[in-house]
């Protein structure tokens, strides 16, 4: 992908930046730079209102096809939108799982009835989604899920039983897409289904998981005869793995550029603090800041290369996408450590409970999870070796 933009793209950039400048004020002014990873607990109700404000302006689902309520933006324009959104300090998106994952997956793999039922609420910013993938025994090894789904022929319903964990924003969500085993005798990636489940129903219990930041972005979700309609399985029973892998391709899509701009905001805060408190005079700190800057640029260039082969239809990406998660997670963890060193020893001391963390303190604590969620670093290295380099797979028990 070219690293420059056309005159039309730059006009679009000015439109995005202008709208954000005009609207991130008044009741929304205090949302600036809030609600990102590690800060998800802040202003949840106000950020829900912000989602609907975005929708009113036509700024939700910018990359979706127009026939499904999106803006139909090109890849270049999507990159611009996510960069300008982060540059303006606009708040973390409570609708990002629906807009970036559930919606594109339903568009790519769902029926027309599913598109009509679920997409309008995502576009309008009125219906929020969460992701039911990980389980206590199936984190990075997603194919080991134990949650079961059986079809009740009499009632025409799918009935789900099991447990999911590390479910971001489950307590704020209206729906959850759930990977469950439709064939109780199946193993690994066989016999899975991809279900669209309403959260507000009997049979679903949500328990918050308190993090070291003192907040609870993540949750455990228990399904005890929870239900969804016969038409709420995406694809056929047994297609769950294919749909789930398609979704993961969308996860590595254009929103990664917005993520990098958020990283840039954090790095800028660290640089400003280093200049203010004198840490910038320490040669080691200067070297680490320079390295963080250079590696963030490398991250951007690789993302642009990665997106040049992005398929909007099914989320597939080039092999360059395989290294992205490992690179940014490790980089971001190191940035948290740099932030602590720039703040100095006093950053490890707070007056007492309830603890009020600064943004950089919260960032440092949260980034410890970056190398775990979404596939651990160890799993990412296996994926790079096996899928990217064609190396032999690790020995696994034979499937029955």
From TrEMBL:
Pfam families: Acyl-CoA_dh_1, Acyl-CoA_dh_M, Acyl-CoA_dh_N. Gene3D superfamilies: Acyl-CoA dehydrogenase/oxidase, N-terminal domain, Butyryl-CoA Dehydrogenase, subunit A, domain 2, Butyryl-CoA Dehydrogenase, subunit A, domain 3. Residues 7-125 form the Acyl-CoA dehydrogenase/oxidase N-terminal domain. The keyword Calcium does not apply. Its cofactor is FAD. Residues 130-225 form the Acyl-CoA oxidase/dehydrogenase middle domain. The keyword Flavoprotein applies. InterPro entries: Acyl-CoA_Oxase/DH_mid-dom, Acyl-CoA_Oxase/DH_mid-dom_sf, AcylCo_DH-like_C, AcylCo_DH/oxidase_C, AcylCoA_DH/ox_N, AcylCoA_DH/ox_N_sf, AcylCoA_DH/oxidase_NM_dom_sf, Mycobact_Acyl-CoA_DH. Belongs to the acyl-CoA dehydrogenase family. This is Acyl-CoA dehydrogenase. It comes from Seongchinamella unica.
């Amino acid at each position: 992908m070219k690293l420059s933009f056309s005159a039309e793209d730059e006009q679009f950039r000015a439109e995005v930046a202008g709208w954000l400048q005009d609207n991130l004020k008044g009741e929304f002014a205090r949302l600036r730079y809030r609600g990102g990873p590690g800060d998800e607990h802040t202003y949840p109700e106000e950020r829900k209102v912000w989602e609907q404000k975005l929708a009113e302006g036509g700024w939700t689902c910018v990359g979706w096809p127009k026939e499904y309520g999106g803006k139909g933006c090109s890849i270049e324009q999507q990159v611009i939108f996510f960069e300008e959104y982060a540059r303006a300090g606009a708040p973390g998106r409570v609708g990002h799982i629906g807009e970036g994952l559930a919606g594109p997956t339903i568009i790519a793999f769902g029926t027309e009835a599913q598109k009509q039922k679920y997409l309008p609420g995502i576009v309008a910013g009125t219906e929020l989604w969460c992701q039911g993938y990980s389980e206590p025994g199936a984190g990075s090894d997603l194919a080991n899920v134990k949650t079961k789904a059986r079809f009740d022929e009499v009632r025409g319903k799918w009935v789900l039983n099991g447990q999911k964990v590390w479910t971001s924003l489950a307590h704020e969500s209206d729906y959850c897409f759930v990977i469950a085993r439709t064939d109780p005798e199946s193993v690994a990636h066989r016999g899975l289904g991809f279900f669209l489940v309403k959260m507000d129903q009997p049979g679903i219990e949500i328990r918050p998981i308190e993090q070291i930041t003192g907040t609870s972005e993540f949750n455990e979700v228990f399904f005890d005869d929870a239900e969804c309609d016969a038409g709420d399985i995406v694809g056929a029973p047994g297609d769950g793995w294919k749909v789930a892998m398609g979704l993961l391709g969308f996860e590595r899509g254009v929103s990664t550029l917005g993520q990098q701009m958020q990283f840039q905001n954090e790095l800028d805060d660290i640089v400003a603090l280093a200049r203010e408190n004198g840490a910038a005079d320490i040669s080691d700190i200067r070297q680490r800041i320079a390295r963080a800057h250079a590696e963030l640029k490398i991250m951007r260039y690789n993302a642009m290369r990665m997106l040049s082969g992005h398929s909007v239809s099914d989320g597939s990406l080039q092999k360059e996408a395989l290294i992205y998660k490992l690179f940014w997670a490790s980089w971001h963890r190191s940035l948290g450590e740099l932030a602590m060193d720039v703040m100095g020893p006093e950053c490890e001391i707070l007056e007492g409970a309830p603890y009020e963390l600064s943004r950089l303190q919260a960032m440092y604590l949260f980034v410890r999870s970056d190398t775990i969620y979404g596939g651990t670093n160890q799993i990412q290295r296996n994926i790079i070796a096996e899928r990217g380099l064609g190396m032999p797979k690790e020995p696994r028990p034979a499937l029955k």
